[in-house]
Fold this sequence. Notes:
This protein is an alpha/beta fold. It has helices spanning 18-26, 46-56, 72-82, 101-112, 145-150, 164-169, 184-191, 217-223, 225-238, 242-259, 264-267, 271-289; strands at 5-11, 34-40, 61-67, 87-90, 96-97, 117-125, 142-143, 158-163, 195-205.
Amino acid sequence: MENLLTIFTPTYNRGYILKELYQSLCNQTCKCFEWLIVDDGSTDGTGEIVKQWMDQNTTFKIIYIYQKNQGKQIAFNTGVQACDKEYFFCVDSDDKLTLNAVEKIYEKIPEMKKKNIAGMIALRGANAKTAIGTRMPIKVRESSLMDLYEKYRFKGDTALVYKTRILRAYPFKLQRQEKFIGENYVYDQIDEKYKLLLLDDIIYICEYLKDGYTLNTIKLLKKNPYSYMTMKLQSSRISKRMVYKVKHMGGYIAMGLCIGEKKLIKKSNNFILAILSYPIGVLIYFLRFREK
Length: 292
């Protein structure tokens, strides 16, 4: 079987837990993949741990790249540029895969080859049987990621496999040398031109750690306000439903209030929507961003 898949892991000081992901890769029913790790400036000996696995492992190729700390999204860009496989599957360093995850991906590859398909969406779970959120909508085979949440009312987390060439066309771009922007910054842009196949199977198991992105969201957003505002303006433009346009614009306004931006309405490039969303933005600011 031709190797078409890169499993990509950005990591920063996660040497203490990375072994769980490595073990889940060793246990895959299909080992036709390579594991690409971009170490975003770890100081905990992660490189030494990975190099031991590179010396010992003969079942799949491991590629290790070290860079100075620039944030997860820049590490993602580095991984995409270094990838020479057709499909790219990002798996975080504190997560792991179900035993047949790679096998399930290969089963979908013939369908993913269609020009209008950018990749596939599968489920994440707390374990191999318990999805984090809802199941996929019944009788829906293809959807954009945005439509999955906004049109079909999906709740929860997803596992995303993309064509590498498409990800290369949509790199993460951060503002003012910040280090974080939401993943939807890229995914929303892809949604404008492509759809994704839906797989109602759990292939990705995750646990939210105290030092992870998910549980530190507010802190991350406040440290990277201009990137967050850029993403929210983009989402408000791309979203097809007014309720979500208002919600995203409200997030933009809330962060602007948080940093004292004085020309929020003018810089929104959508005067009417910004005025309409302003009360929502004030509410979000008081509920999420205002210092307690």
